[in-house]
Amino acid sequence: MTPSTTPPTSTVHSRWNRQLPSSMPSHRYRSAHERVDIPLTEREWPSRTLSAAPLWVPVDLRDGNQALAEPMDPARKRRFFELMVTMGYKEIEVGYPSASQTDFDFVRLIAETDLAPDDVTIVVFTPARRELIERTVESIRGIRNPVVIHMYTATAPMWRDTVLGKNCDELTELILQGGRDVLEFAGHLPGVRFEFSPEVFNLTEPDYVLDICNRITELWGATPERPVILNLPATVEIATPNVYADQIEYMHKNLARRDSVILSVHPHNDRGTGIACAELAVLAGAQRVEGCIFGNGERTGNVDIATLALNLHAQGIDPMIDFSDIDAIRRTVEHCTRLPINERHPYVGDLVYTAFSGTHQDAIKKGFAEHAQRSIDLGIAEEALEWKVPYLPIDPADVGRSYDAVIRVNSQSGKGGIAYLLHAEHGIELPRRLQIDFARHVQKHSDETGQEVTAAALLNIFRTVYIDGEIEPTVTLESWEHELRDDAESTRLVLGVSGSSSHHEERGCGPIEALTHALRRVGRPVEILGLHQQSLDDGNAAKALTLLEYRAGAGVGWSAGISGSVMESSLRAVLRAAG
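User: That's the sequence. What structure does it adopt?
Assistant: Structure tokens below.
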């Protein structure tokens, strides 16, 4: 019997998968596998796990800057650079000094001032053209910082044929001549190392790009003491991330002088999988990642190195970069780039730690409660405990976020989220049955308005429904007095009923029971089913809140009372129940 095989999902047209062909002209495009044949028969990256942060190299001041409608002026470039230094980046690409006077002047600013700490490596970018290499080297003269001169040339067939008009041999000679020019102008400079990018590496024939990289490391005399950076960009993302990982692993395994090479990657995000490409590339042997903080860049952007770093943090790996005040970082990046950051952007967006869904809110609320209880049981501070809260991959406090906006209420929210927000913002802790009752009122309000319900609005709804009422009460408590003598107690009350006063004295019971007896006598019977008391705020100014579950007539309901006195708050709750 021959084993059966299942065709790919895209060719299965069962009664449950009746997808009709679209009018999209997909036939005009070729699969990446047809364009790049990777001679890798065994791959190791799928069985590896990330265990340490790579070297991060932000390119916001060069690659990100050239993608802006309004490139950064000197003040913005300086502010962005200072931010990256403060965050802990040790290698920063600062510009393309042969392309603009602004970039040239900024590199000179670094050379002539103490703007860059001594341990920060400065990267400058240049094409493989003699006059531009010379101009680039001129920009770094006198700089005391370590410097990387980053030379690039496009190597993919479409770029060779259409853009450069050169065959493989001619392009190889162009690149090597650029390498010789770099050596002529900068080979003697102390503290200067070299980087080469075969642009559009991911669309270049593997053996051709391998040969070029080996020739350039030989030309530049790569050694473990003075390694050459080989940066392999996915300049235009054209395949699934596993294909890029295969390409990186092929280079990693086959490069000559591998111990003298720092293998770097520079993924773009055209397919929306730049993050995955970078993570798999590191598994495949990459040691260095170029990208932009929050992913700015041409077209759909460079890989987002903030997300990459915080992905490591969420796996228990130190990202080696400080994101403890992510909102301050965001404000600076938005100011410098004049680009807003989406509210759903990983880790930094306004809503990424926020739950509106009722099921999510309930799980988060229970997770917070369990986390706090574990802290008490183990005698360990909450921030020192392993983080285990559903739907929150990291503790928002790690990046400087408070818990105020973790749960927000709209028409999709449930009782757990409503209860959490009321407790977090106003200190009101609702019993479960009251959570269910209150959620009905909040849902009605949200459906009627179609808007998010803020914490202030929740409190107003709570007061209207359970404390103040929507109509004037028919029974009021004009006065009350409780007396305890020789273990005998009595309570005197004066009720206001329909405009007249009704006097009552009850012996052998406390004020609450006395009030229920008096209400029964005036035709407003209230049966107390449950009474919950709590303190709001701390200190001498604390107020007492009583939450009362009652039966009146044929119905069961809830009421509340609030006062500086526990007894007064309870009496007010009973009166509210009587209507």
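The CA atoms of residues 422 and 459 lie 7 Å apart.
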